[in-house]
Every structure is written in structure tokens, then in C-alpha cells.
From TrEMBL:
Protein's name in the database: Leucyl/phenylalanyl-tRNA--protein transferase
Xref: NCBIfam families: aat
Pfam annotation, one family: Leu_Phe_trans
Enzyme's top EC category: transferase
Gene Ontology MF annotations: leucyl-tRNA--protein transferase activity
EC number: 2.3.2.6
Described function: Functions in the N-end rule pathway of protein degradation where it conjugates Leu, Phe and, less efficiently, Met from aminoacyl-tRNAs to the N-termini of proteins containing an N-terminal arginine or lysine.
Domain of life where this protein originates: Bacteria
Family: Belongs to the L/F-transferase family.
Keyword Hydrolase assigned: no
Length: 206
């Protein structure tokens, strides 16, 4: 699993952005968000090559079925990711507020998936932090078949729109589910190299 580089500190925008720039991200230590904030640096690290997303026939059908938007319902997406019924939940109101501040400052972004017209029924989404060419995915949720996968397809289309090979989509840890979509694992040393390249790249157009 991952490694905790340290605990404590605050979730102010400057602290969060400095952490992402050196390969750290915050996540609670202990279940239910009750423990202190830990600053994590997994080894290996899960990343999704932007030219390596695997889209099955069934996922292509889901992409056509749902509507997607970007940055239209950030707080609602975070709320979906923070659902207390989800296992290993750590997104507390304080964490949600911290990423809401980042969003209002232009650093955090969301992808929304709608069943019907945008604004009708939110069935999935994801959010994360964009620093130069790095997108650090924080969490995703799904209330309908393939909804979180559809959000990932839209995210990759945004990040890869201009084909810049330096951009990096960090998903923290690989799982069997994410591996089926094309996520691979990088050693910490290789991740550090990829991160340095990404930080030299321009951000995508959101």
C-alpha cells in the first residue's frame, strides 16, 4: 500500500499545492476521517497514461448514454465522494471545504456525469487538483453503471486534448478496477521523473 511521509499540518491552499508539487497528497490516517491528516507518497504510484485508457464497447455505450460537464457542480461531486456509506471514507467537512477553496481559486476541478440533461440527475463524477501538467485525482463516485468510468473518459479527453506527452494523470494507487482501464504503476523514482516533466508542461484548458 502507501507510505505516510508525515502527519498533521493544515489544508490551506498553499500547503496543498506545495505538497502536490513534491509528490505528496493528503488523506486521513484512520477510518472515517477521525484520525489526523497524513501526507502520502505511495510506492508504487498509480498513474494512467493518457494514451493508454482502455474503453470497452460497453463503456462506449455508456459514454453515449450520459451527459458530462466540467466544473459545473464541484461541491456536489465532492459531496458524492464523501458519502458516509462508502467504505474507507475520509473526506470530512474540513477536507471538502479545503478543496472547495482550491476550486474557487482555479486549482481544483470536477467532472460531472448526468443521467439526462446537465443539472437534472447527478449519477457520478470525480475531482482533483491541476498543477501545471499534473492532474492529481482525489476521488470519484458512481450512482449508476459506468458513471465514474465515463467521468474518467471525459477527464482524459480534457487532459489529452492537445497531445502534450508531459501531462500526468496521478490516481494515487492502482486497483484491479483501475488496472482494467489502463492504470499502471510507477516506482517512486520513476514517478518523480514523470512529475518533474509534468510540472514543466502547461495546464490543460478547462
Amino acid at each position: 500500500m502507501g507510505e505516510v511521509a508525515g502527519t498533521g499540518g493544515d489544508l490551506e491552499p498553499g500547503t496543498l499545492l506545495a505538497a502536490y508539487r513534491v509528490g505528496l497528497f493528503p488523506m486521513g490516517v484512520g477510518g472515517g476521517g477521525a484520525g489526523p491528516i497524513g501526507w502520502w507518497s505511495p510506492d508504487p504510484r498509480g498513474v494512467l497514461p493518457l494514451d493508454g485508457l482502455r474503453v470497452s464497447k460497453s463503456l462506449r455505450r455508456s459514454v453515449r448514454r450520459y451527459e458530462t460537464t466540467v466544473d459545473t457542480a464541484f461541491d456536489d461531486v465532492v459531496e458524492g465522494c464523501a458519502d458516509p456509506s462508502r467504505p474507507h471514507r475520509w473526506i470530512t467537512p474540513e477536507v471538502a471545504a479545503a478543496y472547495g477553496r482550491l476550486h474557487r481559486l482555479g486549482w481544483a476541478h470536477s467532472v460531472e456525469v448526468w443521467d439526462g440533461a446537465p443539472g437534472e440527475r447527478l449519477v457520478g463524477g470525480l475531482y482533483g487538483v491541476s498543477v501545471s501538467g499534473l492532474f492529481a485525482g482525489e476521488s470519484m463516485f458512481s450512482r449508476a453503471t459506468d458513471a465514474s468510468k465515463v467521468a474518467l473518459v471525459r477527464l482524459v479527453s480534457v487532459l489529452h486534448a492537445d497531445g502534450d506527452p508531459r501531462r500526468l494523470l496521478d490516481v494515487q494507487w492502482s486497483t484491479s478496477h483501475l488496472a482494467s482501464l489502463g492504470v499502471v504503476e510507477l516506482s517512486r523514482a520513476d514517478y518523480a521523473k514523470a512529475l518533474r516533466r509534468a510540472l514543466e508542461a502547461p495546464p490543460p484548458v478547462w
